């Protein structure tokens, strides 16, 4: 006999929302948007021809019939999970972790270290998406969001893991062509700017007490990672955040010609939805980030 089954994705969304009592928490668990859960629930309601939830502002309550329905189908999901673990292949099963982080941070700090995380946790699939949108403006639900801070957002726990300062950096080859012995020597160089961070150089020059300095030239880029790449390529001097240039300083691709002054900067922090704060995988990744952050070199180098 042919089985008549409701849409399984819709059923899964209903089960999670009913069990957790929240579309938002269901979305976080299923790694989808709040809107996707709502759409799946409406689809199931249309299929069944009956409402499943009473909607009260920001909370939802199961109807009496839906509560009885959930009581019958809920255990089936648990049995399915147990059967999969029992008859599946645990050594090939992967767990997924979704991460959202700024592009420059991802390119210059996170990606070079992910191989180390994967080596220690080969069963974890890390999905990284880049964005500079504020935490509260993100449309998707992520396990871990990395942004500057510390800031406070309703519904998220925050933990800092990486601090930094900003100071001038350039390639060793540039210094061989035109030496930099004192900050005033930068009048012979090109200063590299990022359009989204217009105050970096003016603030540093003010701290160095040379606000009136006029460089030989300026170049402005629309992305910070382009500014740093231009510095590595010997085009000019950039204001480098110590966290994001630490590997380049250690490898000798960049040097910091002056010990100071250094501009203070915001720390990098992890923001995790409250429903995921106790998740073992999220906790593991957070702890790994904090350990890597503690291992960051200071970025100080001797003058050439």
From TrEMBL:
Keywords: DNA-binding, Transcription, Transcription regulation. CDD domains: PBP2_GcdR_TrpI_HvrB_AmpR_like. It comes from the Bacteria. It holds the Pfam family LysR_substrate. SUPFAM superfamilies: Periplasmic binding protein-like II, Winged helix' DNA-binding domain. Residues 6-63 form the HTH lysR-type domain. PANTHER family: HTH-TYPE TRANSCRIPTIONAL REGULATOR (PTHR30537), HTH-TYPE TRANSCRIPTIONAL REGULATOR TRPI (PTHR30537:SF74). Belongs to the LysR transcriptional regulatory family. This is Transcriptional regulator GcvA. It comes from Paraburkholderia metrosideri. The gene is gcvA.
């Amino acid at each position: 006999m042919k089985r008549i089954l409701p849409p399984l994705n819709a059923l899964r969304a209903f089960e999670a929302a009913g069990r957790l009592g929240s579309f938002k928490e269901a979305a976080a668990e299923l790694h989808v948007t709040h809107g996707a859960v709502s759409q799946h629930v409406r689809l199931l309601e249309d299929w069944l021809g009956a409402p499943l939830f009473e909607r009260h502002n920001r909370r939802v309550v199961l109807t009496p019939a839906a509560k009885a329905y959930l009581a019958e189908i809920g255990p089936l999901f648990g049995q399915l999970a147990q059967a999969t673990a029992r008859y599946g292949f645990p050594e090939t099963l992967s767990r997924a972790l979704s991460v959202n982080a700024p592009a420059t941070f991802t390119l210059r700090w996170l990606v070079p270290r992910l191989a180390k995380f994967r080596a220690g946790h080969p069963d974890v699939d890390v999905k990284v998406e880049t964005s500079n949108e504020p935490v509260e403006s993100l449309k998707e639900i992520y396990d871990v969001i990395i942004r500057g801070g510390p800031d406070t957002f309703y519904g998220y726990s925050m933990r800092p893991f990486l601090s930094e300062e900003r100071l001038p950096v350039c390639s060793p080859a540039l210094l061989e062509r035109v030496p930099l012995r004192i900050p005033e020597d930068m009048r012979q160089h090109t200063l590299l700017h990022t359009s989204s961070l217009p105050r970096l150089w003016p603030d540093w020059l003010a701290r160095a007490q040379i606000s009136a300095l006029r460089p030989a030239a300026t170049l402005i880029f629309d992305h910070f990672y382009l500014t740093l790449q231009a510095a590595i390529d010997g085009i000019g001097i950039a204001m480098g955040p110590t966290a994001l240039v630490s590997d380049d300083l250690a490898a000798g691709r960049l040097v910091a010609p002056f010990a100071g002054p250094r501009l203070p900067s915001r720390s990098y922090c992890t923001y995790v939805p409250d429903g995921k704060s106790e998740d073992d995988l999220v906790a593991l990744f957070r702890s790994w980030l904090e350990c890597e952050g503690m291992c960051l070199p200071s970025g100080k180098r001797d003058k050439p």
